[in-house]
Amino acid sequence: MIIHGACHCGAVAYEAQVDPARVMVCHCNDCQSFSGAPFRASVPARAEDLKILRGLPKVYVKTAESGNRRAQGFCGDCGSPIYSADAEGAKVYMLRLGVITERGELPPQRQIWCEAALPWTCGLLDLPKIEKQS
Q1: How do residues 105-124 score in pLDDT, each as one tens digit?
Q2: 81-109: per-residue pLDDT in tens?
């Protein structure tokens, strides 16, 4: 599936080919912190299947619990998260669903780091819903 992504301000944009069967939600503490949310959803794209169309993400490199160095790509202007990847010689980019135009067509297929999941996240579907805020 071909997808299109852009940060909130539009300074960074890309196109990529992804497999919708590989969409995942991560509950790890780093994903919670980086996203400012209780979890983060991503889909992998091979480096050769990702084409930056506009701008260049700013990169912050963090060391994972495993010791691996992970590059966190984000818009340097608006701060929108774009991807994570190995810091050296990335072969796969984990593209953040929040900036993908087709995100509604990419439901998560699995969850990882569930031991760090906030206990109340499993009950979100049961909460009252308001379609839009005025």
Answers
A1: 999 999 998 888 888 888 77
A2: 999 999 988 999 999 999 999 999 999 99
Identify the CA nearest to 35 among candidates 97, 90, 102: 97
User: In the chain, how many H helices and how many E strands?
Assistant: 1, 10
CB burial of 39-61 (b: ≥16 within 10 Å; e: otherwise) equals bbbbbbbeeebbeeeebebeeee
Q: Fill in the amino acid letter for 97.
A: L
Domain holding 29: CATH number? 2.170.150.70
Joined tokens for residue 45: 């794209």
Give the type of residue at 14. Y
Tell me the residue range of the domain where 86 lies: 2-119
**What's the pTM?**
0.90
| H or E, element range at 44 | strand 40-46
